[in-house]
Amino acid sequence: RFHRIGAWRVRAVGARPGTQPMSVGIDSTPAPPPLFERVGGHDFFKRLVDEFYDRVEADAELLGHYPDLDDLQGARDRLRMFLEQFWGGPTTYVEQRGHPRLRMRHAPYRIDATARNQWLAAMAGAIDVLEVAEPERSELISYFASAADHLVNAR
Question: pTM surpassing 0.85?
Answer without folding.
Answer: no
